[in-house]
Amino acid sequence: MTMRRTIHEQYSRMADKIELSPLFTRPGEATQLPRYSLPEGESLPETAFQIVHDEAMLDGNARLNLATFVGTWMDDHAARLYLEAADKNMVDKDEYPQTAAIETRCWTMLAELWHAPDPKHTIGTSTIGSSEAAMLGGLALKRRWQHRRKAASQSTDKPNLVMSSAVQVCWEKFCNYFEVEARYVPISEEHKVLDGHDLARYVDENTIGVVAIMGVTYTGMYEPVQQIAAALDRIQADTGLDIPIHVDGASGAMIAPFCQPTLEWDFRVERVASINTSGHKYGLTYPGLGWVVWRDRDALPEDLIFYVSYLGGNMPTLALNFSRPGAQVLLQYYLFLRLGRAGFTKVQQGTLDVAQYLAREVSKIDAFTLWNDASDIPVFAWSLRTGHTRNWNLYHLSDRLRTKGWLVPAYPMPDNLVDLTVQRIVVRNGLSHDLATLFVADLRECVDYLDALESPMPAVKPDSGFRH
After folding, report:
1. 58 or 276: which carries more pLDDT confidence?
2. N or C: the chain end with fewer CB closer than 10 Å?
3. Is 356 found in the same domain as 332?
């Protein structure tokens, strides 16, 4: 009884202390805790929570971030499911067999959505994001090329991968990390995307594949997979080189099937060996989730799959990461069940409608020239009209919009167009038409303010090596 009374008295004194200390003057809140070393003592959970909560308030409003492709909104049911599944480890299929089964259902659904010849007998996996998924697709291309070369007693020393100069940074990482020569086909005013033009100059016997992007990061435009495949067909007829395509469908692979269903970009094109997408982009889940699916099992070399026994069973694992969250996989399955084809079509088309409305409104502003009009994915870019002003540029406009809460990036285009600066808007689920009209009003106000300047704004240098 004495020990119980003592513990009770300690808790009573602690409770009194908390109750008598106003929230922002209690121990920890009233002093500065160290930020770059562990505190010597403990803090009350309420205090630690409040400090982290308050600092996070200084972040931007994700709904007003028109720079990112990553999802920033899900409904309350998804939030509940996310919390319930926060402890699930995707790699531990022995402990979480149902989550593993749901993962298989998800990539099988994607294989069917992307017209795999036999969706139930292909292979795929979830990943942390589409960057990891893209790298797995690239690794499979490299390993297949190596196997073919070794079987023919040929050198495997100098693999190369051909892609647009406007690829996302994950492909630069892949080539750097996995020792593959990156061959960039420059975009231009005439060829705004990789479209098969002049492709024969870039491919050779050491080419492991060609990357086609369904939604270029810089502008949102599709690269015409059929056209690229036709160019590779001609190259094969002339040289005998049989070069596969990996489709980086990070965004467009979850837009095209619903909003442009007749467009043939997926496994209907025979040269397409693999496709990746982001669950956390237009798959509509929270970050981070990606998917990669191969045309069939032959497209993924068996020696890229590992089997581990130390999780309780002989479990196959195919990923660059080992332990990773399983919750996002359940969120993706929830959305597949919740929305179905009809729901995804409605959501994605609604997002496209908002993006195309914004593109039309931007085109009406004399200061701007549209690069594209959001007719592919809900993304478009514009440049400052030549001769409009010497007093400001798009970097100044980006800074001015930030004072209104809007994040709209300005950046130089890639090789051959580095002197051209553009701004880009990404419309995601959660940017309503009402918010879009408010943005247009703020954009016009910012342009009017800058146009009224009587002297040039201070020079603003772009961030070097822009990639998103």
Report:
1. 276
2. N
3. no
Q: What phi, psi does 277 have (nearest 5°)? A: -150, 165
User: Do 126 and 36 have their domain in common?
Assistant: no
Beta strand pairing call for 181-185 and 207-213: unpaired
Q: Are residues 16 and 96 in the same domain?
A: no
Average pLDDT of the residues in 193-198:
95
Query: Does the pLDDT at position 403 exceed 90?
Result: yes
Region label for 233, one of left (φ > 0), alpha (ψ between -120 and 50) or beta (otherwise)? alpha
27 pLDDT tier (thresholds 50, 70, 90): low
CA 259, distance to chain mean position in Å, is 19
Round the average pLDDT of the chain to a whole number and report it.
90
Q: Could you tell me if 230 and 263 are in contact, meaning their C-beta atoms sit under 8 angstroms apart?
A: no
d(CA 162, CA 181): 9
Number of domains in the chain: 3
For residue 6, give its domain range: 2-59
Q: What is the pLDDT of residue 438?
A: 97
Q: What percent of the chain has pLDDT over 90?
A: 71
Residue 267 vs residues 118, 132, 145, 271, 439: alpha-carbon distances, Å: 10, 20, 20, 8, 39
pLDDT score of 102 more than 60:
yes
pLDDT number for residue 73: 87
